[in-house]
Amino acid sequence: MLIAALAGATAILGFAPFGWWPLQIFSLAILFYQVLRADGVKHAAWIGWAYGAASCAAGIHWLYIALHRYGDMAAPLAALAVALLAALMGIYVALAMAGASWLRRRWVLPLPQTNLLLLPAMWTLLEWTRGWFCTGFPWVAAGYAHNANPLAGYAPLLGVYGLGWLAALCAGALLLLAHRTRLAAAALLALLFALGFALQGVNWTHPVGRPISVRLIQGNVAQEEKFNPDHLFDTLRMYRDAILAERADLIATPETAITVFPHQLPPDYLDGMRRQLRANDSHLLLGMPLMDSATQYSNSAVGLAPNADAKPYRYDKHHLVPFGEFVPYGTRWFVDLMTIPLGDQTRGNVVQAPFQVNDQRVLPNICYEDLFGEEIADQLAAAHRAGQQSASILLNMSNLAWYGESIAIPQHLQISQMRSLETGRPMMRAGNTGGSAIVDAHGAIVARLPAYKRGVLAATVQGMGGMTPYILCGNILILCIIALALAGAWLPGRRQRKDAARPA
Predict the structure, then answer these.
(1) Of 367, 374, 375, 422, which residue is the catalytic one?
(2) Which of 2, 161, 389, 445 makes the best surface tag, with the fewest CB within 10 Å?
(3) Catalytic residue among 56, 170, 226, 317
(4) Of 391, 476, 382, 383, which Cα lies nearest the Cα of 157?
(5) Is 367 a catalytic residue?
(6) pLDDT band at 343, cuts 50/70/90?
(7) What region, left, alpha or beta, does residue 101 occupy, with left being phi > 0 and alpha being psi -120 to 50 degrees?
(8) Is 317 a catalytic residue?
């Protein structure tokens, strides 16, 4: 368990900002080796739990900052909450490794089938389940570590969980380099990376329309000031001045750049900006909360177009953060231990229209939402199925000031890079304290602002059209691969058991 826990904690070095992606594969190889040596199913489960809990704790330790520094939760309780979350996430790996150990014994599998079929399939199944069960928590899924190496070529086909499966397949093959099948294992590793490199040259999407000029505003408003009424007017003035300073086809702010509802703003604040935007022929996407009734409000993006007849555009966040944006049943007592504003929000529709900016259609997502690649793909596919033009550019509006100067910002930027790889579309990012960047359709960062500094990122972005296999199929392809792998492991063992059961 100790070795597995150390391997799990070390896996975080494979992700941004470190980027030592081979360590992520090696850590999985260590996990698989320990499971193969386990005395039984229970032992394998404990090994898996140690790996999963340590990996999660290393990957999301920054939640402590949000709970303690900004949520005013007592330090011991905040540390305990993060530890409990890590322990719960460890259960996923425990179940997967226990299941793999049980199936290996039941199906009487030799080492090659176990390493290449069973273990990678069970690992991928746990990651996929973690991505949707109880609203999902797919942070630091294994595939994110491989957005900038040859395995990234598979992302437009298989998505982030497919890359996680490939990483697990590589881990299983590494262990076979000490087996009599070492030549076949080495050939498999070479083939996987060579094919991934070749796939990086495939253009699944194509440019559409004319590029647009964009200005992404990074306000760098400290979290302790963001919702403080004493700093409200300074923040409103700063954003208004930054928005109107220069013309661009699209200007975007971070999530909840404006922290009050429209009726609480100074008179003529929005109308004054709208008039100036019309004079500049600029579009604006402004992060702010919207209220539909005394008990219903949403974390939204409001779009203002220069056309005088155009109605304001509205995008409402639909995948909400547990405990921060909605209160799970029976946990009100836990939320009451914190002082987090704007909790228990109204969900937006799963499929929402993009914002038209000249020739381009910009689809926003707010902060945490871009962890769920299948949901972004579903929105693009829904427009395609309806015979409509799908979004050509993605935009993430986020506020990661909750997590201080931690690795959360580079981790989130890496997640956005994966969304571009999966969809073949550029991703613009407007962050409050960092992560403001332009990611091209191949997942490469082409421009970015330094973190923890106020600034404006000006760039030109070309929209992309067309459908990647991942947009059309989502996670169905990788789930089919898992099913085929498990069937491929089961069938030979079934024949062997039948032969053994026949009378001499």
Answers:
(1) 367
(2) 2
(3) 317
(4) 476
(5) yes
(6) low
(7) alpha
(8) yes
